[in-house]
Amino acid sequence: MKTHRLAAGILGTVVVFVLLVAGTLIAKSRTAAVEPTGPAVSSADLRIKDAQIEEEAGGVRWGLTAEQVLIFDAEGRTALRRISVKVFEHDRSWTIVGAEGDLFHATRNIEIRNNVVVTSSDGLRLETSVLRWQAAERRLWTDAPVRLSRDGAIAHGTALDVRMADGSTILAGRVRTIFNGPGQ
């Protein structure tokens, strides 16, 4: 008789445990997940919305616009979102747009990422996924696939290196070009 009671007690305990677990799972599945309201938490020292910066040096005027700027002083970096850079030289201008990027304070180097498009006033268009500017060397480069186009000519490469000091441009890797006449 004692084993019969013991078995019934164990069975009762198991049934109560299963009912508690099932009840908890059902209650959790019926409650709506609540998303936090307000901006996402970041460790940025300063957050700026709709920033505009303009500067002129060495006969070149440029302006940078970003939808969001996050400044990280400890890292020496400024994160940029939805970037547009306009560069004006005496005989032509450039517009560079990208989804995000970083400005490194110590070196003044810039990296622009995701859907990067460069257009110039003379009709050149460059498309890539990442574009970097090294200020000290005055070098614009990428190691990501590149597409250059102008007046019906299209060139594809796996990397690009532009040296402003000597005016050289190298389209590297497996290069493929297509030449069409204008208007075709």
Protein described:
The protein is of the alpha+beta class and 184 residues long. It has a single domain, classed as Sandwich (lipopolysaccharide transport protein A fold), CATH 2.60.450. The protein has one helix and twelve strands; from the N terminus they run αββββββββββββ. Strands 1, 2, 3, 4, 5, 6, 7, 8, 9, 10, 11 and 12 form a twelve-stranded antiparallel sheet that branches. The chain is elongated, with a radius of gyration of 29 Å. The N and C termini lie far apart (97 Å). The model has no long low-confidence stretch (mean pLDDT 81).
Q: How would you describe this structure in keywords?
A:
alpha+beta, lipopolysaccharide transport protein A fold, single chain, 12 strands, twelve-stranded antiparallel beta sheet, 16% helix, 184 residues
How are the SSEs placed, and which strands pair?
Blueprint: H1 2-30, E1 46-57, E2 60-72, E3 77-88, E4 93-104, E5 109-120, E6 125-134, E7 139-142, E8 146-150, E9 153-157, E10 159-163, E11 168-172, E12 176-179
Antiparallel strand pairs: 1-2, 2-3, 3-4, 4-5, 5-6, 6-7, 6-8, 7-10, 8-9, 9-12, 10-11
**Percentage of β-strand residues:** over 45%
Shape category: elongated
Whole-number tally of structural domains: 1
Highest CATH level, the class: Mainly Beta
The strand count comes to 12
Q: Largest sheet, described in full?
A: 12 strands, antiparallel
Fill in the CATH topology.
lipopolysaccharide transport protein A fold
Structural class: alpha+beta
Helical region count? 1
Radius of gyration (CA) equals: 29 Å
What's the CATH architecture name?
Sandwich
